């Protein structure tokens, strides 16, 4: 018993070239009506499309060719070759959730039950298109095609898909996506081939399943041919859009219409409902909030730092020219006030030659002692005069620094030929 709806060809016929014309059968259905096919269970015809199952759980739908088909040569066990092709779609239900392990199985493809499963008296041959992995029947995956003989345990199975060409990689096909696929099934010379591909694609040369198989003990002289399907707890609609069968013409499948077919794919959710979009927006919003928080912290700290600096300023700093230069920059420019950089000595301190970090400017640095009132007055005098005045004949004051418990420092533009010494120290 299968938990997911299935499409299966329960029994299929066979022919040899010496067969009488009364045994020949060929038909093509590019649309369906109640007079052309027999319906059972929940199977219906909707807009000329054969619909085997609907959104009813634990239900069965079956559609068969109205009469039995002769499958063996007269007075012989030899099975007549046959070829069939059909176009199908598995239309997913909006609430469908594939691959739920452990769900109880349903109606055994609408064909068998646990009592007769595997019984050789079933005389059943089917090709299953299964979208549920049922451990009970040793399914290989939740999206596979298998050959069944009198049992729901497949003789051979393969994941659904196709090879575009012999030397190209296998392309998997998700059967319960609502997309439309075409299937070809041929039997001749004890060889069964099952091929599938998206509708409209030329039949791939390499079949999905290729198996040596003698159906003489499976088939009776006359058999029904058709489709059966079932739903379990998880439901979806199985639709047959076209079907051909022949035991005389293996190219009859070319008569199936493959263009202008309806779509059964569920409409995609708006982008704002898609998981990827939601995840992306969540991550993006988190990053924006994080960056915003970091910027806010930086601005707050920067504002607090400036506030502290202003609070630390003395009245004379605000009155004159508060262009501070950090002690670290001055220390680096003068190589820690190295004696080799001394270019002059005055009563209140030394003058050093230096290069500001980055090599941006050559400067003269005057270090004034903080221990006597004369030094403080000289420091304030320089700031109040040179700090406010700009003239080509005056030495340019770049800035100043007041080192705690140390000294006042003035930074000037450096002038060549000793003129700086004379202007600063009066030498």
Structure characterization notes:
The chain has five helices and 24 strands. By secondary structure, it is α+β, with helices and mostly antiparallel strands. The protein has three domains: 7-267, Sandwich (Jelly Rolls); 275-311; 319-425, Phosphorylase Kinase, domain 1 (2-Layer Sandwich). Strands 2, 4, 5, 8, 14, 15, 16 and 19 form an eight-stranded antiparallel sheet that branches. Strand 4 and strand 5 form a beta hairpin. The longest helix has 38 residues, at 275-312. The protein is rod-shaped. The model is unreliable at 1-8, 10-22 and 96-107 (pLDDT under 50). Keywords: ATP-binding, Lectin, Membrane, Nucleotide-binding, Receptor, Signal, Transmembrane, Transmembrane helix. Residues 337-427 form the Protein kinase domain. GO terms for molecular function: ATP binding; carbohydrate binding. Its main location: membrane.
Concise structural overview:
The chain is 17% helix and 30% strand.
**What is the overall pLDDT average?**
77
What is the distance, rounded to the nearest whole angstrom, between the alpha carbons of the first and last residues? 112 Å
Q: Report on the biggest sheet.
A: 8 strands, antiparallel
Unreliable sequence segments: 1-8, 10-22, 96-107
In N-to-C order, the SSE pattern is: EEEEEEEEEEEEEEEEEEEHHHEEEHEEH
Count of helical regions: 5
Give the helix level as a range of percent.
10-25%
Molecular shape: rod-shaped
Text of the CATH class of the largest domain: Mainly Beta
For the record, the count of structural domains works out to: 3
Broad structural category: alpha+beta
Say how many strands there are: 24
The proportion of residues in beta strands is 25-35%
Could you please say which CATH topology of the largest domain applies here? Jelly Rolls
Binding site for ATP: 366
Protein name: Protein kinase domain-containing protein
Keywords: ATP-binding, Lectin, Membrane, Nucleotide-binding, Receptor, Signal, Transmembrane, Transmembrane helix
GO molecular function, one term: ATP binding
